Amino acid sequence: MLQVSVLKEQTDLVLAGLAKKHYPNAETEVAAILDLDQRRRQLQTEHDQAQAEANELARQIGGLMKSGDKAGAETLKARTATLKQQTKTAAEELTQVETSLQLALVKLPNLPHSSVPAGRTPADNEVVAEHGPKPELPPHALPHWELIKKYDIIDFELGNKITGAGFPVYKGQGARLQRALINFFLDEARNAGYEEVQPPILVNEASGYGTGQLPDKDGQMYHDAQDNLYLIPTAEVPITNLYRDEIIATEKLPIRNAGYTPCFRREAGSWGADVRGLNRLHQFDKVEIVQIALPEQSYGILEEMRAHIEGLLQKLELPYRVLRLCGGDMSFTSALTYDLEVWSAAQGRWLEVSSASNFETYQANRLKLRYRAEGGKTQLLHTLNGSALALPRIVAALLENNQTEDGIRLPQVLHSYCGFEKIG
RNA sequence: AGAGAGGUGGCAGAGUGGUCGAAUGCGACGGAUUCGAAAUCCGUUAUACCGGCAACGGUAUCGGGGGUUCGAAUCCCCCCCUCUCUGCCA
């Protein structure tokens, strides 16, 4: 959530940013917010003044009662009624205005960083790096959804039977490969200085709200109505919310956490072409890295996170490229996002396997996540996160890119983690 | 899940209708003492919002929400959470 103070003091900058994100009606909505804020201040002042008078009267009544002047107390009591009414009216209107203000504010996306390219669609994303040669495939190379059948390592039919579409069952070497990748990613994160955490995978409403999934993407999360809990779409949600409502001591910054969790996404409305096999699932595994940092450090840290993720892909010997997302393609809450895509050789396309973002203060504002700046004032921190990495598409690329006549050869780095060197 | 107890400042812990934002202790910070340190002593030590250039003033907050009252940490109702016992269970 953007800060009203920013809307007020840097209106032009805000409007330019919203335009880059292709947010419609920005001018009207920002103006409405500023009006609401003005009204809010006014009502707050009215309320406080009436309340202050009422408090003063109550104090006087207290004094009179103590000294036994009952009649005097009664006289003063008579005067409290109107004040009480004034306070009540102001408070009610204040609540209304605050609610409207909140609703309007929450609708605005984060402002893009100055380096974010203009543009509306994925075609406008900027390729900032490309690494590794694309492999030569043997004749009759298969896409991963054929390979998993051939080697019987992932079973979609079984998943259909016990749950539904998009919930595959990993078997044998497929299951072991999953476990190996998770361990590899977690070990790499630990070596890079991230503390491992294992959070709950169900979160409450406040958490969904804190990181911005709610109210925006309500329909994209699985929801348990009985207990009003949400299955997490990413470990970003529980891990970042660990620090909700906190004032973090600067010497503890930056906070670095890594966590493995399954992730659940309803993916309502996003089933079209290109979703075969492992390309898009309702449940998948991911290791996520999260950092909480001082504002002046956050962009350096984003680069560091990107380098960490690139390192993982290099160790896995996968060809990849890095995109800087354009204003129209980046997420609602992000200020700058790098997407990392691996080359899926048999499909002949790039698959997104990671997304690393700096949210600046957008999440922190909702989370009330602060530090104490020079002079003792509290200031909002910056939050960042990245996938390091999401498994299914990594598996897809590993299978497709490394297929040979006699099985699928796994990269060196996974041998000890898997306990085998090839599948099949 | 049932019965009972309880949720107060960074922590511990008083306070059961009237200057209570809240005693006291610990911790932290600043200062004095010291060559330096420990000990000791003095002081400071929440957050948000409103007004103000500021100094400062005001309002709210004692798990959350609502109510009673001139006045609520304190009384009433609902919800959440924690602990103990019983039951169930990986």
UniProtKB/TrEMBL annotation:
Residues 33-60 form a coiled coil. Residues 176-411 form the Aminoacyl-transfer RNA synthetases class-II family profile domain. It is an enzyme of class 6 (ligase). Its main location: cytoplasm. Pathway: Aminoacyl-tRNA biosynthesis; selenocysteinyl-tRNA(Sec) biosynthesis; L-seryl-tRNA(Sec) from L-serine and tRNA(Sec): step 1/1. Its EC number is 6.1.1.11. Keywords: Aminoacyl-tRNA synthetase, ATP-binding, Coiled coil, Cytoplasm, Ligase, Nucleotide-binding, Protein biosynthesis. InterPro entries: aa-tRNA-synt_IIb, aa-tRNA-synth_II, aa-tRNA-synth_II/BPL/LPL, Ser-tRNA-ligase_type_1, Ser-tRNA-synth_1_N, SerRS_1_N_sf, SerRS_core, tRNA-bd_arm. Gene3D superfamilies: Bira Bifunctional Protein, Domain 2, Serine-tRNA synthetase, tRNA binding domain. It is found in: Cytoplasm. It catalyses: tRNA(Sec) + L-serine + ATP = L-seryl-tRNA(Sec) + AMP + diphosphate + H(+); tRNA(Ser) + L-serine + ATP = L-seryl-tRNA(Ser) + AMP + diphosphate + H(+). One of its GO terms (molecular function) is ligase activity. Belongs to the class-II aminoacyl-tRNA synthetase family. Type-1 seryl-tRNA synthetase subfamily. PANTHER family: SERINE--TRNA LIGASE, SERYL-TRNA SYNTHETASE. This is Serine--tRNA ligase.
